[in-house]
Amino acid sequence: MCVRSCFQSSCLQWAWRTAFLKHIQRRHQGSHRWTHLGGSTYRAVIFDMGGVLIPSPGRVAAEWEVQNRIPSGTILKALMEGGENGPWMRFMRAEITAEGFLREFGRLCSEMSKASVPVDSFFSLLTSERVAKQFPVMTEAITQIRAKGLQTAVLSNNFYLPNQKSFLPLDRKQFDVVVESCVEGICKPDPRIYKLCLERLGLQPSESIFLDDLGPNVKAAASLGIHTIKVNDPETAVKELEALLGFTLRLGVPNTQPVRKTMEIPKDSLKKYLKDLLGIQTTGPLELLQFDHGQSNPTYYIRLANRDLVLRKKPPGTLLPSAHAIEREFRIMKALANAGVPVPNVLDLCEDSSVVGTPFYVMEYCPGLIYKDPSLPGLEPSHRRAIYTAMNTVLCKIHSVDPQAVGLEDYGKQGAYIPRQVRTWVKQYRASETSTIPAMERLIEWLPLHLPHQQRTTLVHGDFRLDNLVFHPEKPEVLAVLDWELSTLGDPLIDVAYSCLAHYLPSSFPVLRGFNDCDLTQLGIPAAEEYFRMYCLQMGLPPTENWNFYMAFSFFRLAAILQGVYWRSLTGQASSAHAEQTGKLTEFVSNLAWDFAVKEGFRVFKEMPFKNPLTRSCHTWARSQSQWYPIGTRSYSSVPEASPAHASRGGLVISPESLSPPVRELYHRLKRFMEQHVYPAEPELQSHQASAARWSPSPLIEDLKEKAKAEGLWNLFLPLEADPEKKYGAGLTNVEYAHLCELMGTSLYAPEIYNCSAPDTGNMELLVRYGTEAQKARWLMPLLEGKARSCFAMTEPQVASSDATNIEASIREEDSFYVINGHKWWITGILDPRCQLCVFMGKTDPHAPRHRQQSVLLVPMDTPGIKIIRPLTVYGLEDAPGGHGEVRFEHVHVPKENMVLGPGRGFEIAQGRLGPGRIHHCMRLIGFSERALALMKARIQPPTAEGREQERGLRRPCFHWSCRVKSRVAFGKPLVEQGTVLADIAQSRVEIEQARLLVLRAAHVMDLAGNKAAALDIAMIKMVAPSMASRVIDRAIQAFGAAGLSSDYPLAQFFTWARALRFADGPDEVHRATVAKLELKHRI
Ligand SMILES: Cc1cc2nc3c(=O)[nH]c(=O)nc-3n(C[C@H](O)[C@H](O)[C@H](O)COP(=O)(O)OP(=O)(O)OC[C@H]3O[C@@H](n4cnc5c(N)ncnc54)[C@H](O)[C@@H]3O)c2cc1C
Q1: 461 alpha carbon to ligand 1 midpoint, in Å?
Q2: For residues 495 and 492, what is the distance between their CA atoms, to the nearest angstrom?
Q3: Ligand 1 centroid vs 1057 CA: distance in angstroms?
Q4: Which residues have a Cβ under 8 Å from the Cβ of 534 and sit 6 or more positions away?
Q5: Which CATH number does the domain housing residue 975 bear?
Q6: Ligand 1 center to residue 253 CA distance, Å?
Q7: Which of 771, 803, 829 is the last residue of a domain?
Q8: Is the distance from CB of 582 to CB of 433 less than 8 angstroms?
């Protein structure tokens, strides 16, 4: 399989260097001897530590700066600052402690970069085991030097760690002498420390070679008569050292190891085969090593009679169908050799399993560089860019080959590549599945439904990644493309996407190193979008719009591969010792794939053409034809000129069927989703809310959220007016959203599933309208993604909070912070473990004019001093996991940049926060009412087919509004024939219709004239909707009898929330007062 290069070491390594071959030859000639240069004999090699044996602080700093977005060069400049008397040098001489150094150093860095620099984190990285590791090439060299009888020493400028131990991450046993600056109190380039080292070695200066990466240190050594090597990179330094010493310091072929026990192959039969193949007579040994990558097809280095070869074979054991097709690799490389595509020179395919146990092929060993770390550490930004450009160019070359011209026209099927690939990888995944991975299940459903239309069929590599390319050692040119196992004829965009995997993986990802945590601009590496554009440009193609699909599929495929490796590790077939670890990463990668699926779903949705609402002819309520909507479909439309002020600007769309086609489609998609996923989930969600786990989010909700995202049913609430570029949401008008929101209101759980629930919606709107870019990046994005939740803290127990000017919580300035103190309650959502943000309202200036005293602060929920006292209940309901909390804020320090808009703007924000959000509750209340009425009708009418099934025990009883078990008869008459029941139904229908018209009218005026102009309409509907819903639900409860009060039906909860909204959305009286005030004003 294809992850040939899994588990490779992280640093840039010489892969197959021509120079190395010379060493091998020398080694075979047995040229072991003491070396003389200019008549003097070398008796010792003295190594500096940082920059020679381990990475230099400068190099570590450069990478750390990229990752932490610190201006490049800051650390190095601060290290040099002050020269001999600077903090760094004093630290090296142990004149100051680590704490003292970090204090001074931090101050210097902050002054230089004019921002706070977390130097502690740099220091931890510098001294971490991950970074402070001896270069393998140096370990090899030291072993060889000592084997020849020479002494070794380390002469280091180093320091004491906070634990009082000196920083020396080396095995002391490798050195005869260790001289440390912090122990001696002397630093290089002071000549005394070199003399001390020589003295301990018992040698004259001319008898030793000194290696250091810093010019002044090298110069000081040279002036004492020591031979020196200035180290720029360890590999080159070792070459120079070899030249001085006259013997090889390398032990073997890079990236190889002795053949693992389980992977041994018979040398004798192989040697015989090779002798025949190459036509050579040799009695010399066959040298065999195994490349340390090769998850899929074990790969070996062979040296026989001065020929350097590579053998690649199938793994032993039972194999997954169509995997490990080494024959195909051989065929395509042979064909491409003459087509201008750089490939290794293949020599022979041997399908006779008797030679090494399985079929294999042999190719020539290709010298060059393989970049194993895709962030290309140690290179200049322009060099990195050139490498990625060369990679893009070679890919274009592959995709430009005419398969027929090279005899590969039958190399794969023509067309329908992606559907076949999806089927293949689903099959591969299923064949190796060990447990259910939710994201994989979702992708298996999603991918076939979103297949792109394939534009072109070309040769595809199938595993096109940077570390499958051998580069020229001196210029950015690809010398060979390796690992063709997955090549075929297909959609070339798959290769482009696959070569961008690293862009989205973290640098710590153990299988394929990525760089999603690095600043690409600083590195000089093109972003994935640019890489796609570059490709399209080179190929003369229009830009690829649907590349998120290709990314989703590529990650899905990677996840399936990792799962295969894991499965084989369990069954003992995998060729890597780390395979088990690999499998555990499947879930991580599948989640990445799903993120792209979601992005693609949303892109398709956003590209639908939107039209303004149209005026349609008006009909009346019709009896339902729809299976799911038992109460009737509203096949009617508009009241033209809903508001006199906006008569000329379009009519009021009062029916979903009259919405513009894309929004109507969206409405029906939402309806289907409610029917297929939300209503059936209600019993389970309700049980979760009653269980001991209720204060943790329900996994089912999380799963439904992902499904809704993929359907583009996500963040529908943000009004077009607040988000005109549709950057954050679906860009619906208030009227359009009113129809959708009503539908969501029919289930208590639905709003959260579509990321359309309060108080997040109001908070997100606040951030969109008033947040700075930094505030948006920190808070808005996670909220929009549904990864975080939030709360809004205004109400206080000790004051009448319906009047926001009464709020007493204080916000006081203190240095670069605001300090808040206050007591709040009824804070919805604050108990949710996902709640990361509290939008806090308090007073910054109690002496300012009444409406300028309040301010709004963004308070991270993990700030010390936030003390949740208790969850409050609404008629006994806890509303877990978000709940409604009582909470104290005690000396909570919040950075000043968390203030929204500025001090004194809180009242204004609180008003704006509830812009369109001010009527979302009303829209949902219409949904509550419709469902209550539907349940009531179903209760009293003869059973539906579904209800009959339930009666027969075929289905679980559910919350579904059309389900009913038995026709109910009281006092000799079915309920449906009782006059009062009929009157209640009629009354409810009329009240719902009235309220809906008022909601839509308010939304319409907001759309056309703005929120301020709609003040009267908003106040009217807020006055009307909660009471109307309470009455309709109350009637339904009455018709249900005692069952209506139980939690078997959603009625009791609907009632509770409708009642609570008569406070939560502002008390009725306040809205009445507004209506009256405006009415009187209008009259006058
Ligand atoms: C379920 C629920 C969730 C909530 N979520 C949040 C939240 O997330 N964040 C938050 O900050 N708050 C929240 N609240 C609190 C809610 O916003 C307040 O309850 C509301 O603003 C009223 O404030 P109060 O309770 O202090 O009542 P008060 O202001 O004390 O009012 C009490 C009563 O006085 C009368 N009254 C008030 N004003 C007038 C007037 N102008 N004319 C005549 N009579 C009047 C009314 O009868 C009113 O009901 C929530 C409340 C509930 C029930």
Answers
A1: 65
A2: 6
A3: 14
A4: 389, 392, 526
A5: 1.20.140.10
A6: 76
A7: 771
A8: no
Split into its structural domains, the chain has a count of: 7
Q: Whose CA is nearest to atom 7 of ligand 1?
A: 827
Q: Where is average pLDDT lowest: 119-128, 431-440, 669-678?
A: 431-440
Closest ligand 1 atom to residue 829 Cα is: 8
Contacts of 518 (CB under 8 A, 6+ apart): 66, 67, 375, 507
Which long-range CB contacts under 8 A does 627-631 form with residues at least 24 apart?
Answer: 628/671, 628/674, 628/675, 628/962, 629/671, 630/934, 630/937, 630/938, 630/944, 630/961, 630/962, 631/930, 631/933, 631/934, 631/937
Of 757, 807, 868, 1063, best ligand 1 pocket probe by most atoms within 8 Å of the beta carbon: 1063
What CA–CA distance (Å, rounded) separates 423 from 167? 55
The pLDDT-based confidence of 319 (bands split at 50, 70, 90) is low
Q: From CA 464, how far away is CA 143, in angstroms rounded?
A: 37
Indicate which atom in ligand 1 lies nearest the CA of residue 828. Answer: 8
Ligand 1 atom nearest the C-alpha of 1060 is 53
Give the atom of ligand 1 at the shortest distance from the alpha carbon of 799: 26
Pocket of ligand 1 contains residue 826 by CB under 6 Å: yes
C-alpha 805 – ligand 1 centre gap (Å): 13
Residue 443 lies in a domain: yes
Minimum mean pLDDT range among 214-223, 289-298, 525-534, 998-1007: 289-298
Distance between CA atoms of residues 966 and 957, nearest Å: 12
Mean residue pLDDT of the chain comes to 84
906, part of any domain:
no
Specify the range with the lowest mean pLDDT, choosing from 643-647, 711-715, 922-926. Answer: 643-647
Read off the pLDDT band of 4 (50, 70, 90). Answer: very low
Q: What residues are paired with 178 via a beta bridge?
A: 154
360 and 404 fall within a common domain: no
1022 — pLDDT class (breaks 50, 70, 90): very high
CA-based nearest residue to 928, from 759, 1057, 1064: 1057
Nearest ligand 1 atom to alpha carbon 824: 11
Query: Which protein residue has the closest C-alpha to ligand 1 atom 49?
Result: 1067
Among candidate residues 9, 218, 219, the one with its CA nearest the CA of residue 134: 9
CB 217 near ligand 1, within 6 Å: no
Comparing 293 with 394, the larger pLDDT belongs to: 394
Residue 626's pLDDT is 29
945 CA from centroid of ligand 1 (Å): 45
Verify that 1057 and 976 share a domain, yes or no: yes
Whether 513 is in the pocket of ligand 1, judged by its Cβ within 6 Å, is no
Assess whether 479 and 592 both reside in one domain.
Answer: yes
Residue closest via CA to ligand 1's atom 32 equals 800
Question: Residue of the nearest CA to atom 3 in ligand 1?
Answer: 1064
The string of pLDDT tens digits covering residues 158-209 is 999 998 899 999 988 889 999 999 999 999 999 999 999 999 999 999 999 9
Identify whether residues 123 and 207 lie together within a single domain: no
For residue 631, the model assigns a pLDDT of 33
Together in a domain, 240 and 277: no
**Residues 886 and 927 occupy one common structural domain:** no
- Residues 179 and 195 sit within 8 Å (Cβ to Cβ): no
Pick from 81-85, 276-280, 492-496, 643-647: least confident:
643-647
pTM for this model (two decimals) = 0.54
User: Which domain range does residue 345 map to?
Assistant: 256-367
* CA-nearest residue, atom 24 of ligand 1: 801
* Residue 650 placed within a domain: no
Asked whether residue 465 falls in the same domain as residue 594, the answer is yes
Residue 241 in any domain: the answer is yes
